[in-house]
Amino acid sequence: MHICFITNEYPKPNYPHGGIGTFVQTISRKLVEKGHEVSVVGINTYTKTDENEYENGVRVYRLKPKIVKGLTWYFNNNIINKKLDKIHAKKPIDIVEASELGLALVKKRKTIRYIIRLHGGHHFFAEAENRKVSLWKGFQEKKSFKKADGFIAVSEYVKLHTSKFLSYNNKPIKVLMSPINLDIFKPNPEVKVEPDTILFAGTVCEKKGVGQLIKAMPKVLKDYPEANLLVYGRDWYFKDGSSYINYLKNDVIPKLKGIRKHIHFMGAVPINDLTNKYASAEVCVFPSLMETQGLVAPEAMAVQKLVVFSECGPGKETIEHEKTGLLCNPYDENDIADKIKWALEHKNETNEIAKKAREHVLSNFNRDNILNKNIKFYNKIKA
Prior knowledge:
The protein is α/β, with parallel strands linked by helices. It folds into 2 domains: 2-179 and 366-382, Glycogen Phosphorylase B (Rossmann fold); 197-364, Rossmann fold, CATH 3.40.50. 40% of the residues lie in helices and 17% in strands. It has helices spanning 19-33, 72-90, 122-128, 135-147, 156-162, 210-223, 244-252, 271-280, 296-302, 315-318, 333-345, 347-364, 367-382, and strands spanning 2-6, 37-43, 51-55, 58-63, 95-98, 113-118, 150-153, 173-175, 197-201, 228-232, 263-267, 283-286, 307-310, 326-328.
């Protein structure tokens, strides 16, 4: 088969990217290993130039954007459609896959089947963040869903939650969690664990619960005065262009006396380096207010770390509380602090939970198993 992913997020060395980019890279490489052809098409948000790459057998087409006030969306979609035509003419495409908004302006071709993978779209996060649905984005998302021949959801939660706002139009839908690269995320006994070190990884923004985690630190520091919180991830920006990290530094942290020197913003790190960051931490905490799946939790679990994950959304699909990790109420900084302190205090129990966490990930997030299920679904849609 020839599968084409539409995304702007395919990872580029030395540039930060999100979970969708990580997922597309992971599944693309495995599809190539299985003998399939994979193309990735997207607007080049990294360097704003035309770049073609052949990365581990994956053909990546990063397209130069055309920026025209009010019409950038129109011209960029034309650029993507023209590239899809060229790729299809050279080597016919069987499956085009995109995220929720991705098919809205894609020109459908009769011989190609179109799949939307639900990572959490505009309607999904508008409700989660208590904001209005944009008429334009809402329209695009509905149009995109009408074009899909099938859907893949990364969790039961995102499948059910999305159905509150959008119709799957009686098309096939399958729940398949995103796989973890277990060649990268594995225990490393050579890495020294830094005592009382708490790690967060992910985009540094409100919905990831970073603010609540920082507010939990005074209670943690009361019992563990040498504790440090290391925050890894790219910054997020408000509509006015201001930095969320600066907001935390200038507005949140100063109100919490005595914690400034214990909070460290480490910036984004390459995925190959992240595994050792997990390994060096005593506990990894991801108190997201809203997730569709959350790759960081199973990544850290694969490294055999104790993970405190949000009980909201798909948390219970990833972690069985007190057996493969701990679940917390992300809206309650006291509960977050209590879970962190329990992990720091009960080291023997923590080690046992971490071992079971890795076993769980090996069984449920294995790339080969998930890839085979993906291929089976692709064939079902293609038939």
